[in-house]
Amino acid sequence: MASPAAAGSASVGVGVPKIPEFLAATAGGRPVPAVGLGTASFPFGEKDVRAAALAALELGYRHLDTASLYGSERAVGEAVAEAVRRGVVASREEVFVTTKMWCSQSHPDLVLPSLRESLQNLQMEYVDLYLIHWPVATKPGKPQFPIKREDIVPMDLSGVWRAMEECHRLGLARMIGVSNFTTTKLQQLLSIAEIPPAVNQVEMNPIWQQKKLIEFCKDKGIHVTAYSPLGGQGMSNAVLRCEVLEEISKARGKSVAQISLRWIYEQGASMVVKSLKLERLKENMEIFNWELSDEDRLKIGQIPQHKKVRLTGILSSEGTTSVDLAELDVVEM
Ligand SMILES: NC(=O)c1ccc[n+]([C@@H]2O[C@H](COP(=O)([O-])OP(=O)(O)OC[C@H]3O[C@@H](n4cnc5c(N)ncnc54)[C@H](OP(=O)(O)O)[C@@H]3O)[C@@H](O)[C@H]2O)c1
Question: Where is the NADP-dependent oxidoreductase domain (predicted)?
Answer without folding.
Answer: 35-297
